[in-house]
Amino acid sequence: MNPKERHTQLIKTKASAFGFQSCGVSKATFLEEEANHLERWLKKNYHGEMRYMENHFDKRLDPRLLVDGSKSVISLSYNYFPDKIIEDDSFKLSKYAYGEDYHNVIKDKLRNLVAELQEEIGEFSFRVFVDSAPVLEKAWARKSGIGWVGKNANLITKKNGSFYFLAEIICDLELTEDFPVTDHCGSCRKCIESCPTQAIISDKIIDGTKCISYATIELKEQIPDYFKDKMDDWMFGCDVCQDVCPWNRFSAPTLEEKFQPNSKLQNFTKQDWKDITQEIFSEVFKKSAVKRTKFAGLKRNLDFLSD
């Protein structure tokens, strides 16, 4: 086995040992096909107030601009599907926000993974990414064979569905590339037909300005009247297009304790949410991704749902 193959095998074995569900490799190069899609999406203003999507256009499409001399993009996925749902007779939040902030949890795993790799391979240049930099994560995950991009624009796998985080290690190692898998959505349109706000306007195209996740997390202004009576009690994010996806019947609970439902949330009633104070918010969401919307943002969402 040559060094390229040996290093690739080592990385995949280590990734599995650290709890990552999947690991695939792509060549670090310019994403030509995605460049056209991103440009059209931005021109139609489907990103709304997410102005950061307009920034670093070239870096989003070329990882060599993020890591000098980079040769490979290592894509990884990590399961976050909870062992219990906490929305009975209460307001709802996306399952990815049930536990601790994934940015910190996954990034720690990536850094420890790379540290072990460097002990065996030797020093190499790298950067790790978890949904916090101009990286087109789904494009790289698709290219590396982790899954296909479904009609709801989420990455889907036959074995695990879509309830997982994506992460990347961009590095200057020469590695053996993987290849994309085929699309298995077929004629199914459940995600498109079930979206409460018709945000999935066509196959793989999302109008972010109509998405409940956008309205409850990204949007900093007042929620538009368009969303009135369409939000189905979602106060932070939305999982509808994943919940109805037939492939998610294969989702198994995560083994990562930090992604299990926060015990403080388990017994919250709608009235508890309506009465939430800054102090309670800070205590309950101290290590949570929900911090992103801040207390004022969550309160705005709850007030909109309660009107």
UniProtKB/TrEMBL annotation:
InterPro entries: 4Fe4S_Fe-S-bd, 4Fe4S_Fe_S_CS, QueG, QueG_DUF1730. GO terms for cellular component: cytoplasm. Keywords: 4Fe-4S, Cobalamin, Cobalt, Cytoplasm, Iron, Iron-sulfur, Metal-binding, Oxidoreductase, Queuosine biosynthesis, tRNA processing. One of its GO terms (biological process) is tRNA queuosine(34) biosynthetic process. [4Fe-4S] cluster 1 binds at residues 185, 188, 191, 245. Transmembrane segments: none annotated. Its cofactor is cob(II)alamin; [4Fe-4S] cluster. Pathway: tRNA modification; tRNA-queuosine biosynthesis. TRNA binds at residue 220. Belongs to the QueG family. This is Epoxyqueuosine reductase.
